[in-house]
Structures are given as C-alpha cells and as structure tokens.
Amino acid sequence: MPLDEFDRAIIAVLQEDARMPVAQVAERVSLSATPVSRRIKRLEEEGIITGYQPVLDPRRLGLELDAYVLINLDAHSDANIERFEQAILDSPYVIACHAVTGDMDYLVHVVARDVEHLSQITLKSLLRIPGVRDVKSIIVLETVKAPRTLPLD
C-alpha cells in the first residue's frame, strides 16, 4: 500500500523520537490521536515500521573504535557461506554485515574498544572462520554523516 502524506509525516516524527506519545505525534501531523494510532498500527503490520530500539553511543559504552572489514571467502559453496554467515551472526562486535559486489565478498562493520581489540577480533575471530581467504580492515577516523533516518520522498 502506498504511503500518503500523513503516513510519511508520522514516520518522519517517529524517526525523530520513536517514544513520542501518540497524542504528540497526532499534534505534530495535524490529525487526531485515534487515526494516528490506527496508521501506526497499520505501518507496523505492513512491515514498514519493523521495530523500536534505543540509539546507543558506542563511545560511552567503551567501544571507541569503529571499523569496516572487507572479507573474501576462498570458495562460494553453500556450506562455506552458511558457516561464515553464522560466525558473523554469533559475533557481538559485528554490528552489520553486507554481501557486496566488487573485489571483496563481504563488508563487515565492527566496533571495538581500541586497535588492539580490533586486532583480536580480526586475527582471532574473523580470520579463523573456516573458508575466509582475505581480510582488509579500514579504521574510521571521523564520521562525517551517520543518518539514523531514511528519506521519505
């Protein structure tokens, strides 16, 4: 079902603050609370809104280092891919993983306490996953833009 202007406005408000009470969302989008509540429920049921979670500051949690790790597998068999992806799912320091095009097979987003911790994650975890051939790490020096919202146009 396509989104109308009210759906987009509701989503935009919830992207700013997902804990905002329905009455306040309604006020911001110029609708009454009941239709806003129904629309939010529909957006959730349709899978447009897939959940709510707090946005955490990794540095305040002692995770000072942000890195991307490019990984190549030595073979692309189903078993090799399943083994790799399960190991990635099991790693608490991997916060995102994407299969990608180009020279590498996966782009893995890792958070770590420091460079030594990243080294441990890379050498003692990622490189030891059976089937991993190459690993290249890129350490983030500064984040210029890290959107937490999606464009709605």
From TrEMBL:
**Superkingdom field:** Bacteria
Report the SUPFAM superfamilies cross-referenced here: Dimeric alpha+beta barrel, Winged helix' DNA-binding domain
One GO BP: regulation of DNA-templated transcription
Q: Which Pfam families match?
A: AsnC_trans_reg, HTH_24
Q: What is the protein name given in its UniProt record?
A: Lrp/AsnC family transcriptional regulator
- CDD domains found in the cross-reference section: HTH_ARSR
> Which Gene Ontology CC terms are recorded?
cytosol
Q: Which GO terms describe its molecular function?
A: sequence-specific DNA binding
Transmembrane helix as UniProt keyword: no
SMART domains to which the protein is assigned, alphabetical: HTH_ASNC (SM00344)
Lineage of the native species?
A: Bacteria, Pseudomonadati, Pseudomonadota, Alphaproteobacteria, Sphingomonadales
The alphabetical list of record keywords is: DNA-binding, Transcription, Transcription regulation
Cited InterPro entries: ArsR-like_HTH, AsnC-type_HTH_dom, Dimeric_a/b-barrel, Tscrpt_reg_AsnC-like, Tscrpt_reg_AsnC/Lrp_C, WH-like_DNA-bd_sf, WH_DNA-bd_sf
State the organism of origin: Novosphingobium aureum
Which residues does the UniProt record annotate as the domain HTH asnC-type?
Answer: 3-64
